[in-house]
């Protein structure tokens, strides 16, 4: 049976790969965006995840077309890098409010319908940076680390109703952002990865799809690294 899937920030990069993977297996898939629209074949809903009213409206639009959300993939996120001593309070808080606050708002909204159905899947897209840290990314790493605590708290709160909450922590992935890196920096980063290469977004998507599948029905509160070994031991 087709499920109703919502991927926040699903109009490009990892989010789009996740959305396409669910679509390929027959699910009805919606993606949030901030005004850029959605790729062909996906239901697009405009939403700033820092705004609770926009989150509520987006869920209403999704439910009207494809029913209550069965699978939420919280992927929307931003970066605003700067070394800590030069980072301003607004820079720090804006990244946390989007990456961590957005996950809280969207999962809170999704959980209401999931609780009534006594089933559901929530997957947060974190980062290897949240596990091992990253220079110049105190805000980003803190927000991504926070997703682990959020997921495990929700896993305990919602587990008795058949709802699982898990985290996927990607490493270096081939996206628009990594494509813009200077070649020397790109080579240096790849050199830190034991598998010696950048991930394809589809490799992240496969982990997300598995966590939302019947085969992962007894997995909750887990952090699945898909990072080529970059974060081993964390």
From TrEMBL:
One Pfam family this chain carries?
adh_short_C2
Q: Spell out the molecular function terms from Gene Ontology.
A: oxidoreductase activity, acting on the CH-OH group of donors, NAD or NADP as acceptor
Domain Ketoreductase, first and last residues per copy:
3-176
Coiled coil ranges (UniProt) are none
For this protein, the record's InterPro entries field holds: KR_dom, NAD(P)-bd_dom_sf, Sc_DH/Rdtase_CS, SDR_fam
Q: Where are the transmembrane segments?
A: none
- What is the protein name stated in its UniProt record? Putative ketoreductase
Q: Which gene encodes it?
A: colC7
Show the SUPFAM superfamilies listed in the entry: NAD(P)-binding Rossmann-fold domains
Alphabetized SMART domains for the sequence: PKS_KR
- Domain of life from the UniProt record: Bacteria
Q: Which family does it belong to?
A: Belongs to the short-chain dehydrogenases/reductases (SDR) family.
Q: Which UniProt keywords apply?
A: Oxidoreductase
């Amino acid at each position: 049976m087709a499920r109703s899937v919502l991927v926040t920030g699903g109009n490009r990069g990892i989010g789009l790969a996740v959305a396409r993977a669910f679509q390929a297996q027959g699910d009805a898939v919606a993606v949030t965006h901030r005004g850029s629209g959605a790729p062909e074949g996906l239901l697009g809903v405009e939403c700033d995840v820092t705004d609770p009213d926009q989150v509520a409206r987006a869920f209403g639009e999704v439910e009207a077309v494809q029913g209550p959300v069965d699978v939420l993939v919280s992927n929307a996120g931003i970066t605003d890098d700067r070394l800590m001593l030069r980072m301003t309070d607004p820079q720090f808080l804006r990244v946390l409010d989007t990456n961590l606050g957005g996950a809280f708002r969207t999962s809170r909204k999704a959980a209401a319908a999931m609780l009534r159905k006594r089933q559901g899947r929530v997957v947060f897209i974190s980062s290897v940076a949240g596990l091992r840290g990253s220079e110049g990314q105190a805000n980003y790493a803190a927000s991504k680390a926070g997703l682990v605590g959020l997921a495990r708290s929700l896993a305990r709160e919602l587990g008795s109703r058949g709802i699982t909450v898990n985290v996927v922590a990607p490493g270096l992935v081939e996206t628009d952002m990594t494509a813009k890196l200077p070649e020397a920096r790109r080579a240096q980063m790849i050199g830190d990865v034991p598998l010696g290469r950048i991930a394809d977004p589809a490799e992240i998507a496969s982990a997300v799809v598995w966590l939302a599948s019947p085969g992962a029905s007894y997995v909750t509160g887990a952090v699945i690294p898909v990072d080529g070994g970059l974060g081993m031991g964390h």
